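Lab manual, section 2.4: Encoding a predicted structure.

Procedure: take the sequence of the chain (165 residues), apply the prediction step described in section 2.3, and record the output as structure tokens. A sample record is shown.
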Amino acid sequence: MKQTCDYTIGQTTFLVTLRTLIGWHFLYEGMVKLTNPDWSSAGYLLDSRGFMSGFFHSLTYKASVLHTVDFLNEWGLILIGLGLILGLFTRFSTFAGILLLALYYLSHPPFPGFTFSVPSEGSYLIVNKTLIELAALLVLYVFPTRIGLDAVFQVWWKSRKRAVK
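Recorded output:
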């Protein structure tokens, strides 16, 4: 299915701005975790509530698994952030961001009766900033832009294909 992007300049500007802002958030969060030698996801995972809490708790049982989860979280955030900022592998980066945010949301769902040891920035009922950012990425996934390195590679690929013919 080929997608066309016939957006106005304003629509494109706001979509790219949204993509860049979310990318910055991902990149910054990943860099903070990577540069803090004491950071671990263990506390966050053990604080999980809800129907998937057993899965999240189990990720802390073996040091090797927890180390892998920490590595994937740090570098996942960084690479997703860079992809969104640079417009590189944008569809993949957007989808990966959606999956990561869904895991965060399922780990700490803002449902009545759940309390967490990590204080939140506000009072939430079902909708929190994680879900809002996930919804924004869904918008970017459904309304892709061709601004960034993906466009450069697309031009290069087309010229390469013409040269081969």
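Check your result against the sample. The chain has a mean pLDDT of 91.
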